[in-house]
UniProtKB/TrEMBL annotation:
One of its GO terms (biological process) is cholesterol biosynthetic process. InterPro entries: ERG24_DHCR-like, Lamin-B_rcpt_of_tudor. Residues 10-59 form the Lamin-B receptor of TUDOR domain. Residues 65-129 are annotated as: Disordered. It comes from Armadillidium nasatum. The lineage of its organism: Eukaryota, Metazoa, Ecdysozoa, Arthropoda, Crustacea. It is a multi-pass membrane protein. Keywords: DNA-binding, Membrane, Nucleus, Phosphoprotein, Receptor, Transmembrane, Transmembrane helix. Residues 74-84, 99-108 have a biased composition (Low complexity). Residues 85-95 have a biased composition (Basic residues). This is Lamin-B receptor.
Amino acid sequence: MKMPRGDTSRLFDVGQKVMARWPKTSLYFSGEIIDFNDIEYLIRFDDEDKSELAVKYKDTTLPFSRTRSRSRSLGRSTKASSKSPSRRSPSRKSPGRPPASKSSSSRSPSRRTASKKLDTSPNKSPVVELRNEIDQIDKLPELKNRSVTTTDVSSRQSARIASFEKKITYTEVKSNSSNASIGNNIKIDAKSVVKSVQEKNRFAQFLKRLIVASWVTAKSVPLAVVAIFFPLALTLVCTAKQCKMEMPKTLPKPEIFYHQKSYLIASGFLALSLVFSLIPIGKIFKTHTGARVRCNGFLMLVACAIALGVSIYQDIDLQKIYILLRPLLIAFTSIGIVLSVLLYIKSFYAPRDSINPAGNTGYYIADWIEGREINPRIGTFDIKYFLFRIALVLTILISALTVGKEFQTKGTKIFVPLLLSASMKAFYFLDWIVYEDSFFTTFEYLNVGTGLVLSVFYMTMPFLFTFDTRYVLNHGDDMPWYCLTAIVALYVIGYLVMKGANSQKHTFRTNPANPSVALSGLWGVVRHPNYLGDIIMNLAMTLLCGFKHVIPWTIFVFILFNLYVRMSEVEKTCKSKYGLAWASYKARVPSRIIPKKFLSLQYER
């Protein structure tokens, strides 16, 4: 149905119920205004997913009155017609009109439709009328706009089918046929007809979403390919013997990619992490969903570090474990893929408030890649936090394993750049473990779906982020002390910027009633100081690799690209969530990541 256009000026306030046009359609639905700016409202629609969309002022209007609309559809009311002068004046009556004709002509076509009775004319059969009504169900129009969720389409279609059910329920059927007569008060049940139509539409929608590629699918598939194959490609092009930007001419032996011990080690490490997640030791943090998560990642790290130290003390050859890094990468990647499939199946039984809008498009491949659920849980067990903690602890262990292997080979004469690279990497992730409750206020935890990309990324992150440390071990060059000092100073500056910004952000999100926090400190200089500190720290760690090969710098470019995408997602979410407050903040802090006084020409979206 089409609705009248409204004025461009604001007519409604926050909390008011309105009828708003769904974006890119001509259909209006009821919703509640939760925010507004100069040209549009932010409306929470009354659908099953409680969608929050921006709608322009002109596309909103007051809710329709059901009583009034019903009276209009039935034509002129009896009360109004009785008071009409034309009905009171006998001179205006049409003379000679037969009574039967009068009663028949005074009723409008819309009136006859509303009465829901078959025409008693001998030219029309009640069976024909019934078939015509049933045919209307088969010709239900489908919504053309595929951006509307499957739940909305099915709910509106069910409402229309319900209206047709009422139309084909007849309380009186009369037949003028001389061969047979049909009794009164015969009710025709249309449930079987409706069910067949729904099954046909459901099957057609399933085939379309399974086969037809959408823009969402085309955008998600490259992310999945990069998440799965990029870490593996780095291990193939950069080995201990050479490091060139070209694939090997001959494929490595299969045992390089697969080893039975790698799957045993990966499964055992996941089981150990699960045990530490369940033991009642550690601080309990209450998430935004009300779940109570136990934070004891540091305890798990200490236990693993003790086990590694005992292995070195017992002269266990760490080289045998080190050569399993590539099979371990394949094993953890496989675990991430399998886990993403299980999470996709679980998401269909998850609460509606945990569904990811970006992963609920109805296209199965895209939803599987993006993740239909943001924070999947089994009771109080938080799966996203579980995967994140595995990535943190495993990254520190691989860094320590690299140094421990070198210690067994060369003793105390360890390569200084290697020691610095491993220490910087371990310290970076150790900070997340010590302050792991700050993860629950990050954009990644609050807004990113736990699908194929995130599951595989958490499983492969320890191997990807320790690549530069292993590169320094195999291909690194010695550096003068002043270069190493400058790199360490740059790393410390980046850490202070990132730590200060994250602490301030954590304070603001745990206490949003104090908006002055967002405009003070580093957040009053640039809009994303936490990402600025992250970039500085990764730059310092990459500088230890030198400039002999370009491959280590591809990881730094990869990090820059991911942070740019994340900044765009954060700004889009903040614009939708905070509205005018975010616009005011952007006006006061125009620089996205580089302070304005250090950059005369800055990029603005």
